[in-house]
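Hi Q.,

Before the meeting this afternoon, I wanted you to have the adenosine-5'-triphosphate prediction in hand. No need to reply - just skim if you have a minute. The sequence and ligand are here:
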Amino acid sequence: MNQSTAMEPPAHARDDIVVANGTGMVFPGPVVALEDASFHVKRGEFVSLIGPSGCGKSTLLRLVSGLIKTTAGQLNIFGTPVDGPRAEIGMMFQKPTLLDWKSVFDNVLLPITLAGTVTKADQTRAIDLIHLVGLKGFEFSYPRQLSGGMQQRVALARLLTSGAELLLLDEPFGALDEFTRERLNLELMRIQSDLDATILFVTHNIQEAVFLADRVFVMTPRPGRLAATIDVPLPRPRTIEMTKSSEYNDLVFNIRDTLGGFI
Ligand SMILES: Nc1ncnc2c1ncn2[C@@H]1O[C@H](COP(=O)(O)OP(=O)(O)OP(=O)(O)O)[C@@H](O)[C@H]1O
Ligand SMILES: [Mg+2]
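Predicted structure with the ligand bound:
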C-alpha cells in the first residue's frame, strides 16, 4: 500500500475545512442545544450564523473549536474528527477576555508567547495589527484604560496574530457603535482574503450577516437546527454601496422572513 496516498485525504476533502454530519449536542438536563446539523464549509469561505437567542449558535462554534465534544453525529475539521482545541483554530468571543495585567502589545502577542519564542518579526506584526484595528497610540496601554470597543479590537488583533486558518467569531462586534462595526467588518473581510482564512461568524444582525458572508446559515429556536442555507452572490470586495442594491436588500428580507416564521 502506498502510505502517503493512504494518509492524505482526497483533494475535495482537503478543501472542506468543516464537515458536520448529523452533528448534535445535548447538555445534561437534558437540553438539546443542537440537533442533526449537516453542512460543509470550504477553505476561504465566510459563513454567517444567525438565529434566535438560545438556538445553539455558540454551541456550534464551541463544538467546532474543540472546547466541547459532540454527543451525536460526526464533526471533522481539516479532514479529521475534532478531539480538542488546535492551533489552526482561533476563537473570539463577545467579551474580549484580555489579561488585565498585560499591555495591549503583550495581549496581542499572547498566542505566540504561549506557543514558544516571540521573534522581532512577530513584534512588528503585532504592532501592525494594533494599528490595523485602529489602536495606534495605545500599544502600551492596559485593558482597564480602554473602552469596551477598544478592548474588543485588541481581541481581534490577538486573534489575527495567532495565524489561525479557521476563525470562529461569536458576536464579536455586537457591543460596538455602528461605524466602528462597519469599519471592522470591512477590515475583517480584507484580512480574510489576504490570509485565505475560513470564517464562521455568529451575529444577531441580519444586515451584517449578509454583508459579510458567502453563505448565511439560518438556525431555528431550540432544539437548534439548520433551517436554511442562503447563498450571498454579491461580488467581492464588498463595499458599503452594495447595501443599497436590491439584491442585498432582497437577501436581508428573505432571511428576516425565514427568522420571523419561527417567532
Ligand atoms: N454548558 C451548558 N450546559 C447546559 N446547557 C447549556 C450549556 N451551554 C449552552 N446550553 C444551552 O444550550 C442552548 C443553546 O445555547 P447557546 O449558547 O448555544 O445559544 P446561542 O444561540 O448562542 O444564544 P445567544 O444568541 O443568546 O448567544 C441554550 O438553551 C443553553 O441554555
Ligand atoms: Mg451565543
